[in-house]
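for the writeup, i need someone to sanity check this before i put it in the appendix. the sequnce is what the collaborator sent (i think, or maybe the updated version? ugh). structure was predicted straight from it, no edits. if anything looks off just tell me and ill rerun, i have time this weekend
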Amino acid sequence: MNTKILVFSMFLMCVLVLGTLRVLRTPRPAVSAAEEQALIATIKLRSGDMGNTEERGRIAALEDQLAEAIKHSGAGDFDGDEYGAGVCTIYMYGPNADRLFGVTLPILKKFHALAGSYLTKRYGKPGAKENRIPLTGD
């Protein structure tokens, strides 16, 4: 009888594992456009394609402030950055790009970005309506 219990237990474990794998492989439902809104900051760099150590440190401190403000406000998520071609691009996502803008603009203004730096409010997935807002008086 112990053998039957052992075989049955192993069968149940296999069923559970296969069921779990199936759930994990099931595609998530499409995220609505509202959940895909973005605020993208494009910060011009002074020093080459990737900036210098000082610039990168200053931007890292800015990102910490942005991430904290977004988290504290519940406006969305700070996603990270990308360096290249003389700019740092910072990605923030949430259900409302205007709310992300309101939460982050005071921080970004205090940063004193170089002329040519700007924000992009995107109202949906890539390809959706976008508004570009200069971060400086240029």
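The domain at 33-134 is CATH 3.30.70.100 (Alpha-Beta Plaits). The helical segments are 2-25, 53-73, 97-111.
thx in advance!!
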